[in-house]
């Protein structure tokens, strides 16, 4: 495994029969792995006998290849002098994208988190946009997550001296400058070469907490190493079918100083995200696709989501909870709870809290929003166990659909300790790197200051249930379909119009 | 009737005064039948003295002509050597359609049942699309059937080991690999030359049950013959005014092994489907239409629906139920029940179940969706007779508007035994034949697997009422009409935009 | 007054100082009347010294001029040989309209009442379209009238032998072939030269009742004369400030055989209909308008509505009811009742019924629909007086927004005796004359037959409250305004697309 | 300070190091003030050494410069003979705007308050339009203010002699010809050179009350001086951090005859209005913006709102109320109350009333509309203190979203004494000066007359709660997001179409 191999020799193994590839300067024989590759063999064969690092990097956790190939397939190091880089000429689409990148407005013109998304749409590579923005099925849940906030309205108080307002809070015992945290999202390098490190560094500057994702593009240790002294980080965990791997990971994280463990429980299988899957097809070589027979029944489209998630344990169960409690002293929070019954079970199991979430609308379509679930959880845990919220001993978090400080304050008023924000920060660093994330946090700070003043709340403790009207939160309505014959006949009202002044001849 | 007739002789009978036509190599004198033809005389006269088989086939049950003409009008067999085929040159529209047919994407790119519909719209002959897709009046009910599912949201459970999930079930005592069946739809050959046989064969491969329609393009026996050994089939019945015909049909079906009888009760008269009717006009010879006087008051448009349904008995009554019970031992289910009162009557009459359905939105406009009716039926049958659902002795089915496995699971959670799916399979085989139906079933299997896991249900028995929130199901709301003067004045918000970089001169 | 006047002499009186006009061959001196003309003096001055009949006819009741001018201003008859007709060359817009008139599809292609409106929009003169189609303010009430029907859904019954279905009924003791009547609408000649007579003749053929409008273009007697023997007609009454005129009119109507008196109570002043008013401006001579100073504050726009209604008594009061009861033995019905309190007063006053109506959305914006009011009236009159509906002694009618037989049946199920239909018949005769109205009635008959069968009701008596779900009728909701920044960022889902097959080179 | 300075000398002070400007003929040294200018230093430097009056005037209260600069920076008067005016050539955009100004339709064509807005959009300078029309965040609250009125419907009464209807009322003891007042809006000169005086003069003519804004473009005394003898004016107050300034202002106002003091309590900090902020960027010199580095993190955009409001006291508190009561005998009303709890506190504090308002949607996004708050305030103050409304001793006002007399009447029926109208009058005078405001008031008078008649109310006292149905007022619903794959497949209904007549060859 330590021998040095020439580019020429590698290039000879460029077929399905014998397929070698270079990743990060190491040579691997992936011939036998081809049929097992979650992303299909075709994409690997494209790099057979060549350097695949550029394609490999954003999609895979750094240790994916070493973990999946037996040692004897690790052939050795490549002799760099002998390799010709595959210098792909950028496509017209890519050139246009790079031009748009040049045309980004200065950060000072970004006025809200929506603006980052507007820019990211323009400057992200299509594949990255599809992976980040896509959600389950018809993406109804994705949009409901945002829309749910529109069903909750404020009841602000006046004449409370609000010169000094303070929106800092405590999350699982750790100080946070805002009642929100950066939640875990996968594959950060799809959007920016520094990936998740953009978040780590910006979080340090603004005093907010980052949740490190299992499926980060950067390695766990890179992300922890990038933290400032004393910076608090949490860990999001996808549980591996091989519990030994999970145990090793969790113990390592605790040793590295991670402060809480968020176990994802809403993703025994990663969702079908059709935008992502469809992208896959359209990006493929059209000639090759054309050759497929119409009757080709094999589903070759997996999208990025499934390509990276085959290891997740579908058998995770309540019975596993004591085991987790035995391997770590970190507080354990379940991420992805979606009804009060499971929140109650989590409480009774002695856990530290739950994240009410539907995974950003990316898993089960027609799951309710975290905000809606929050209302029923608060009501039932009061009824069943006498709890009131926010509650230091059992904390409720919500994520999905947040774009404004007002969204966050609605969740806080309804009983959440803090709110997780994901995609907006992805869009921020994809568009502007670390500066983008800092600008996003600054905008949120500005919004918190103003909203707290206008709400009449001088501290997070003063953001109380009476400050919101959530009585419409459970309404899931759809208008009776329109009568299109009638609508087509109806001639719309017109305002007065400017005169057209005719010249006098 | 057994004599052989030359094409030349037939061609002499090409007028309203004497009109012979050839169907499947047999010659018929239809002169006296012209005014009675449900589809109008004009369409027959177009083929007077010629071979009408191509036009006849997709629209008529195979035995329509022999059943409707007295024996003396069956003149004999045509002498094939003497007939010139009417080789119609394809129109420009038809040529464009055939090109689109060539451009169908490979089946692997079809990701959901919606995709089949998107392709079918492009590749179906206009008349077939109009017949399949049309519905009653303003098609509000058609769309409500789908929309009703959007008013029901999930309450998923977590941490239930879901490695093995099983969505097979039992329908009227027969195993089904999924909690759905292929419901009856008419005129399959409009979409594909193999018609309903596409469904039979795909159903066999995937272990689901097909309901054979009375108005199939293929004959009943062809469909039964196409079944695999042991394959379960049900029969949908339109009751004939001539009960002897119905009795013969039912007894024959039972003898051929059909396992259940679904009597359609929501169609004493087939609905006005204006899309279908309008198509008829536009397809007609414009010259001829132009000659019509503006004041022509005769409604010549019937659409395919009425053309094929004049035999249906408008007098069907509860009093007929015992008679049906006397002529068959098959379980009897009423298809088209729309309120709890009738479900209760069906139960009290000793029937095996009801299909809560509004006939795919094709009959009475503003009938509620089957899903909504299900909620009231379950509530009232519990109150009146103490029944709980699903119930093996009295089974509830729902059809209309289903496109996703999540739709099916909502109905199951609310008490249905299984759900009928119709149009999506029509679109699947119209676009891709039997392969299309198989792909559709495979997609549903994928969706069931994922949805069951994400719902936390390992078997259909674990899909329980607590897993859905249907509290908005009875809301039939329409927004207050917009104030268009105000809306027109309101200037929409704009996101930040890319800069346009001016060249430096 | 009986002298004969030459065109030359008349032409000399063509100024504001002395203004004579010819109407129907009679010469009138309108100089002093100019400032009082409800439609403004300008329009009259356009015809000063000329024949104004063509402009006068559709807008005025036939006797308007004779009633409004003192006898000494009736100068005599014109000498026809001496008058040159003003032969206006049709404008380009008018020519295009006449071409569209030629292009009307044959009546057989008209499939629903919506279709008449689609044609009328194209073929009506702009002024007529504006007058017929316009409504109050933002026309929200107009559209709500139709939309209210969409909030009521059916609960149909099955297996009730429906071979014979009968939708005839009795209205105020008079047989009607359908549970609807042709309600009063003004200015029929704007749409068709025969005006309201189209309705009279078609009503006779189909056995329905016509309500004669006070503001008909045809004279009352013309309309009564056009009736077939035994044909039932009702009278709609705008009460004149001069009660002697009203008394004379009512007594005359009763003598002529009119069977019921519908007193309009929702129009003490006719509504502002901005579409109509705006039309007025745009139709005016642009040169003249341009000369207006910007600061011209006089509201010259009245639209047709106000031009014809200045005589209506704003002082009409409950105290007048006994007087009406003293001058006629016809049953008296109040047209335009909008809450249960007034329906109760009408009942207690011994009247024969009420029309729950908001005047087709043309009067008070945000008045509720008749259908919604019906629900509260039925509930409260049962509670207060023990009445059940339909009720022969005190009948409830509804109008506004009806386009389908299903709309009518919803109102019947909720307790109405019959439903008034107005605009659809206007559109029908404006497009196709009497034939159009007959076709409209025939379509309704077809729809009634089918809907009664599918509803499981064999007679109007069997159309009962249990057949509808009106639980959403009082919902007046408006969605929270959309978040346009979010919406603009959201990239819509796309279905699979046809491949574009590239030629092989 | 009294020396006369030559233009030449002034022009030498045109840099950041020494910056003099001319305003209204006076010379000021603003060098040290540059970094403190709320609108940024850049805009001042543009006029360094020049006359800044034209830019200064509409944005600043007249005494802003004298109040903010210490006396020693007031250098003296400019010598007019020595100054060259900066005669800016109008931009193309400005020329197009002036052309549109020429094309305004005559006032007589303006039919509703919406029409003024339609014209103002076209003829206002972009900056003025952005400042007037913008609102907080996504402008959801702005639109909700209008939409809330659509959830309240009328229950009109009939047969009440309505010849004489009277919509005059009493507001805080002062006669008003209508139940509305002109509420305070800032920076009137942005829209018209006469600014707020347009309102004063029109108010006098129509007998309505004007509320004078603290942030008027005209000085307080100019506005009071413009009043007619006996004309009633109120004062809107932004409380200054320096209470001495506020006390002086309030005492001065009372001495000048102002009749009531409306203290704004919903704006301790002025809201982020992104439309306004974005305008700022787009209006800036593109070259300069382009030079900004992408990473420029300083938020240079403040919009007009923040530029003018830095003096407002964020520490205003209930404890300050007695002080206000000690410095004035004017009745005190809190403007910006948003829940019943604060209305109750205001009542208990002995105040004269509250304005239920969210500041025209310009402050806290998702604040409820004043109309909605009104319903809860009336209910709770009845419950807690036995009050009924309208109530002379404690008056309720509402503002935001009003466009029609029907809107006003809904608020009156629900218990308001009067309604504040702001933007529509801004749009009226921006488009047509004082004449526009008069026309707007005349339109409202017309609408009141008609609406009172149609409602059956002869006086404001007869506009009672039973006349409206507000049962849907608290509904904050959002439709379930649409299923776009389904919607895209659904082929809309089509009406019949005109034939295309083919020429006969």
TrEMBL record, chains A, B, C, D:
Gene3D superfamilies, alphabetized: Aldolase class I, Cytochrome b5-like heme/steroid binding domain
EC number: 1.1.2.3
Keyword Transcription: no
Pfam families registered for this protein in UniProt: Cyt-b5 (PF00173), FMN_dh (PF01070)
GO molecular function, one term: heme binding
Protein name: L-lactate dehydrogenase (cytochrome)
Cofactor: FMN; heme b
Biological process, per Gene Ontology: lactate metabolic process
Domain Cytochrome b5 heme-binding: 2-79
Keyword vocabulary terms for this entry: Flavoprotein, FMN, Heme, Iron, Metal-binding, Mitochondrion, Oxidoreductase
């Amino acid at each position: 495994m330590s021998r040095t191999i020439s580019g020429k020799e590698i290039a000879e193994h460029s077929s399905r029969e014998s397929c070698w590839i270079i990743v990060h300067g190491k040579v691997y024989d992936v011939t036998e792995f081809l049929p097992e590759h979650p992303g299909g063999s075709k994409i690997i064969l494209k790099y057979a006998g060549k350097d695949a690092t550029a394609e490999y990097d954003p999609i895979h956790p750094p240790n994916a290849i070493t973990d999946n190939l037996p040692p004897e397939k690790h052939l050795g190091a490549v002799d760099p002098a002998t390799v010709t880089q595959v210098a792909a000429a950028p496509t017209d689409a890519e050139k246009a994208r790079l031009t748009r990148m040049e045309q980004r407005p200065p950060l000072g013109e970004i006025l809200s988190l929506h603006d980052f998304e507007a820019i990211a749409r323009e400057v992200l590579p299509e594949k990255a946009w599809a992976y980040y923005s896509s959600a389950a099925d018809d993406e109804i849940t994705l949009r409901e997550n945002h829309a749910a906030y529109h069903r909750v309205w404020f009841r602000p108080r006046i004449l409370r001296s609000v010169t000094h307002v303070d929106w800092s809070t405590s999350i699982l015992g750790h100080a946070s400058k805002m009642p929100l945290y950066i939640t875990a999202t996968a594959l950060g390098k799809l959007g920016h070469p520094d990936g998740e490190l953009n978040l780590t560094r910006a979080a340090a500057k603004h005093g907010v907490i980052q949740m490190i994702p299992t499926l980060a593009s950067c390695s766990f240790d890179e992300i922890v190493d990038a933290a400032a002294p004393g910076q608090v980080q949490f860990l999001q965990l996808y549980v591996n079918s091989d519990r030994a791997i999970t145990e090793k990971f969790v113990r390592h994280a605790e040793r590295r100083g991670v402060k809480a463990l968020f176990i994802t429980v809403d993703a025994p299988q990663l969702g079908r995200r059709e935008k992502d899957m469809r992208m896959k097809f359209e990006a493929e070589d059209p000639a090759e696709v054309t050759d497929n027979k119409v009757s080709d029944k094999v589903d070759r489209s997996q999208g990025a989501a499934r390509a990276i998630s085959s290891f997740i344990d579908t058998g995770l169960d309540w019975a596993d909870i004591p085991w987790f409690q035995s391997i770590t002293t970190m507080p354990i929070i379940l991420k992805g709870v979606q009804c009060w019954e499971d929140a109650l079970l989590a409480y009774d199991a002695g856990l530290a809290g739950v994240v009410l979430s539907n995974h950003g609308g990316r898993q089960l379509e027609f799951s309710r929003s975290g905000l809606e679930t929050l209302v029923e959880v608060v009501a039932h845990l009061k009824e069943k166990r006498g709890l009131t919220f926010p509650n230091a001993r059992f904390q409720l978090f919500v994520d999905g659909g947040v774009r404004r400080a007002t969204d966050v304050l609605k969740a806080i008023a309804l009983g959440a300790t803090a709110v997780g924000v994901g995609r907006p920060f992805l869009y921020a660093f994809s568009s502007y790197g670390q500066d983008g994330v800092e600008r996003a946090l600054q905008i949120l700070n500005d919004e918190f200051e103003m909203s707290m003043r206008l709400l009449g709340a001088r501290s997070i403790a003063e953001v109380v249930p009476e400050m919101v009207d959530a009585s419409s939160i459970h309404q899931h309505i759809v208008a009776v379909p329109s009568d299109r014959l009638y609508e087509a006949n109806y001639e719309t009202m017109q305002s007065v119009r400017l005169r057209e002044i005719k010249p006098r001849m």
